[in-house]
Amino acid sequence: MAEFIEPIEIIIEQLRSLPGVGRKSAIRMAFGVAEMDSEKLERFASSLLEAKRAIKECTVCHNLSTNELCSVCSSPERDRSIICVVEDVKALMAIEKVRSFKGVFHVLGGTISPIDGRGPDDINVASLLDRVNKGGVTEVILATNPTLDGETTAIYLSKLLKPLGIATTRLASGIPVGGDLDYADEMTLLHAMDGRKEI
Amino acid sequence: MAEFIEPIEIIIEQLRSLPGVGRKSAIRMAFGVAEMDSEKLERFASSLLEAKRAIKECTVCHNLSTNELCSVCSSPERDRSIICVVEDVKALMAIEKVRSFKGVFHVLGGTISPIDGRGPDDINVASLLDRVNKGGVTEVILATNPTLDGETTAIYLSKLLKPLGIATTRLASGIPVGGDLDYADEMTLLHAMDGRKEI
């Protein structure tokens, strides 16, 4: 039996599809939606859709952007010879926050996962190889998360890149194993970046 | 300086307008929205709007409902001589969960608050008096939260109702003072309901 009237349950279910939203918080938010006046809710919904339409993917590195090139790729100050490969935009932002990395990024949009049946074609590997093949890249930092899938992906990429004469490095220990890169504090990330080692 | 690109900040700001959503969880959810494919987001937004349109207010007690009368007011098994007055629908639901109360409800939609400048006309007091004046009501349980504004509202209502020959009661101690009714556990609520006393 549903705990609430059907439209409230529908709102709860929709809100739960967002990351990090459990049933308790979804209930709280659903009552907020129910109590919002209809005009405000219309504005809420159209703001989300409009903002979403304004979000593009950088054509070079797959970072989120409002233009064809993201703020990193369009900056003249970044060193295009070092590419830091991350799983997602949140990891990219965690590294950007430290302000020590002067290279550019490549967002994979996930990991290779033999268990979940995700292969290299399901993530942005081809576009990474294109970038490397265009020349000028000397090092690729494989900053995927220190999880099973993250490690698998890093090893796969290093096997692809090493034969092309590219140095492949991995962030140094310091990030707790099994953890998530975007939860690491700035000092930990700074040390991990400085102590990166070849794999 | 904004931490994220503008459309992401707009989504974060919109999500933060929902109850219980802080910046950290809004960021997490905003990236979920950014990564959602556009069709799914359109469905998300239209589901919210459609569900919202299906939510009505019970014409008798102001409970949320999909019909003119809510499930409590339309039930033939409820005792219409006892009205339990609550601040909001969440408090009503907390009491319904205990399944010990057989009377009906009246949702005020807030409290009287001299400090915030909310008077009796800003909440559903007039419709409560209408119900009482129609006759047949013997007791009104003033189940507003045990906060300053909740107590003020209960005392105001008891002064209005007592001259009409209506017994006015308040939930027994058991609910932590300063707390929120919809966070009380079921046993606490059960005891508070059983031990209600006249004010």
Characterization of the model:
Two copies of one chain form a homodimer. The first copy, chain A, has 199 residues and is α/β, with parallel strands linked by helices. Chain A has two domains: 6-54, Orthogonal Bundle (Helicase, Ruva Protein, domain 3); 77-193, Dna Topoisomerase Vi A Subunit, Chain: A, domain 2, CATH 3.40.1360. Helices cover 41% and strands 14% of the residues of chain A. Chain A has seven helices and seven strands, in the order H-H-H-E-E-E-H-E-H-E-H-E-H-E. Chain A has helices at residues 6-16, 23-35, 38-54, 89-98, 126-133, 148-161, 186-194, and strands at residues 56-57, 64-65, 79-86, 103-107, 139-142, 167-170, 197-198. The first copy, chain A, has a five-stranded mixed β-sheet. The first copy, chain A, has a two-stranded antiparallel ribbon with strand order 1-2. The model of chain A has no long low-confidence stretch (mean pLDDT 89). The A-B interface holds A 3-8, 10-11, 14, 17-21, 25, 28-29, 31-34, 36, 38, 41-42, 44-55, 64-66, 71, 88-90, 93 and B 3-8, 10-11, 14, 17-21, 25, 28-29, 31-34, 36, 38, 41-42, 44-55, 64-66, 71, 88-90, 93.
